[in-house]
């Protein structure tokens, strides 16, 4: 063998090339195994790109995606708006992540040839339980929305009653109140028959006496509430049965056979074929060839051993160079991503797919680069050892161990000095920051725009039924919100809630039934709470929540936070709650004259008084607890579609220094899908500018639902930029540093 390579140098070159190529293939195999064939790789990419969060915040609120989800949402016993608002309750993030991890494992098994087809496995147990809970809570909320109105025509009365009953049973809050009309006994019988058509046949006899008695008394609300539980419960049972009809122990298994006529399926099948060829043929062959070639190089090199290491060292160096060149070529060649989603997908889903795919490609190429560096390091080690071994007698100073302590001390001193000096030299002294910007320090509180979160306590993070935000309140502050709109309540007993839900008296049987439902959803608790309407649908203790806000302010000493409280608790109890929460040193006291200009942000920050608190009803007794509508004004807030949004005056009149823009849709509760539209940067800018022109005053607070959806924060930042540079968009806009009318 040695003689063959000596007699034919071309054979030695060929052996060296085989060694380099086979080692490069093995390096590629290591990259593939640690990325594309590792389920953890995909999980990490999804986490890095916030894929699961973006499904809630971007994909499921994309208006173009509504048709794709219509069929699924129609199967649930509550309205689509309620489901989309409660997505993180119906399908919690941990459930979605578990679904993703399971499917990733299935895909990897398919690519490796361990599975003959792709299978989607979904554990519906938590989803089914949450749909049931959501349905019960929604029923109470829907009945709460009903109001009386007159309807003189009996035929119109029956028709309207049937329409509203169908809405409630379908899980939709009525857009108008219940009709009312004194009924004769015969008319009550006819109306009863109309309502009972919505109840399953086997349940009609049970509820008929209650419905008929209620209509005999003219109590339409009680009649409707009597049939709704039976009908809604039946829908819940039907929906659940449909969802788990193929289930075993709560798991719905759907087998998906690849259709070779579809583009995505063809790509998946091609990837599977390449993967199996690589694993079953190419990789084993490369391992054998690499071992054989390295053995030939070793024995074909002249002794001693030190000289034989040198050619072996150049093999990984060449493989590293080849791997690096491949990475470079791939970066150039992959100007377009390898897989294209179908154009019918909604744009948000395409963006998410592309971002995840781009991140995965980048991680693969980065991993390949790391492998190349490892090969290069191994090469350098082998070459260095060979060289030092052969030339050791001529290098005594470099190998003298007596120099080690001095060398170590010198390197350590340089590293320490560089660590201390370099950051200062590179960055210098940082500018002063106020409310997240160096430019806002000299602006007054009443000159800037701030992002406000409507019903900030009602979050999916805290598992509210009917949430209007996703992160908890601290998470919203971290995301750039600086104004929190909160509702304070005392927890009502179930019987009190049942009484409040009715526009007229409930029957004793119905009151008892509704009370039991509310007790199951959430039993009452004493104390002061942050709730959205009914505390049983979600509540946070007031004092701990205030303490968290105070902790955040102390951890962020350059920020100012504002609370606007819809106060269901009297002012004296609220004052004591703030003091017990330890916020006395943070509370700012507004000037008693609402028309006076507010201080600059830097002055508020320097004073430490950085928490402004307003009430919607109270005005005191604490001097820092002032009625918002003495100082501010607002737009309407009961918009049922984005097209209805207007700038007409609402509470607070038209001449206040602070201006609250209510920028959310409240059709039967918060609308996550509409938030994806109205929270866009362009939509916020357009409405703020329009309302400023119409009202002649600058907007200070932009209140939104789902503040982390869309780019309302980007719009607020752009508005502040406009004002700082004197091009605010309202009539008679003043130069930076002034407010019209100040």
TrEMBL record:
- Among the Pfam families in the record, one is PI-PLC_X
Any GO molecular function = phosphoric diester hydrolase activity
Residues passing through the membrane, by range: 281-300, 312-334, 364-385, 406-426
* GO BP terms: lipid metabolic process
Please list the coiled coil stretches: none
Taxonomic superkingdom: Bacteria
Q: Where is the signal peptide?
A: none
Q: Which UniProt keywords apply?
A: Membrane, Transmembrane, Transmembrane helix
Q: What is this protein called?
A: Uncharacterized protein
Lineage of producing organism:
Bacteria, Bacillati, Actinomycetota, Actinomycetes, Kitasatosporales
